[in-house]
Design a protein that fits this description.
Low-confidence stretches: none
Number of helices: 6
Number of strands: 0
Largest sheet: none
Mean pLDDT: 81
Order of helices and strands: HHHHHH
Length: about 130
Amino acid sequence: MYQLILKHALWCAIIWTLIIFGLCCMPGSYIPSTNWLELISFDKFVHASIFFVLAALWFIVLIKQNKASTSFIVLILLACVAYGGLLEIMQATVFSQRSADWFDFIANSFGCVLAWWLFYRKKVFLFKPN
């Protein structure tokens, strides 16, 4: 599976970006709400996780295209954080039965920064590009 993602990194990143958009524009009544999930902040874990994957996929795209310079990495990181912020703004203003949440934005940003940290500091995603 990992090799398949690496081979089609750009398409995986684009599709994942669109999946996040679809999830965020879904009406609030379609999203399950359970009190015990709120106790363990499951929602924030989900936000951080999906944005971690988003940033990681785009970092892999940079590696595959041999553009993993510091400026491109920072650009991708900022773009992913901005995307999370824009979706929160859209939830408050455009999407029905949704509302913006600063803590969701923080969780989104945390997931992006964690992906950057693992990518840049720990070199977790490094592989030999084709």
